[in-house]
Write a structure and sequence with these properties.
The chain is built from no helices and 13 strands. With 128 residues, the chain is mainly β. The strands form 4 sheets. A 6-stranded antiparallel beta sheet has the order 8-3-2-1-9-10, with no helix packed on it. It has a 3-stranded antiparallel beta sheet with strand order 11-12-13, with no helix packed on it. A two-stranded antiparallel ribbon has the order 4-7. Bound molecules: zinc ion. The site of zinc ion has 9 residues, from loops.
């Protein structure tokens, strides 16, 4: 088996679905959006309203194992590379790089480089 494929370095993804981000590179540069989902393995994120592509399909055509009943042009949000987006700090509303700290409780937190405010991610009931 050939193993010549470049394995991307596993990095902790700072982004999670629901995070506000700004696109800093690519054709949608400057756009704001919300993370819809993250593709950890591919190092990509899907951002709402960003990187819209049109997929032309014919009725009955099979795409990726999914049979399309209705033909036409379908808009969809294509994943863009994680490095092309930056998190927008809710405290100072600036696109920011984050640094990681470990709280006294042992929990991991993201901190804004500009204002030093910890970024509180709205998570669905973490304390369970
Ligand atoms: Zn900030």
């Amino acid at each position: 088996m050939l193993r010549n494929k470049v394995q991307p370095k596993r990095r902790w993804l700072d982004l999670a679905p629901g995070d506000p981000v700004i696109v800093v590179a690519g054709k949608d540069k400057g756009k704001h959006g919300e993370v819809l989902r993250t593709l950890k393995d591919k190092h990509k994120v899907v951002v709402k309203g960003v990187n819209i592509l049109k997929r032309h399909t014919k009725a009955g055509q099979s795409r990726g194992g999914v049979s399309v009943a209705q033909g036409g042009v379908v808009d969809f949000e294509a994943p863009l590379d994680y490095s092309n987006v930056m998190l927008v700090c809710p405290s100072c509303s600036r696109p920011t790089r984050t640094k990681h700290i470990v709280l006294e409780s042992g929990a991991r937190a993201l901190v804004c480089r500009h204002c030093g405010e910890p970024y509180e991610r709205v998570r669905k009931t973490e304390a369970q």
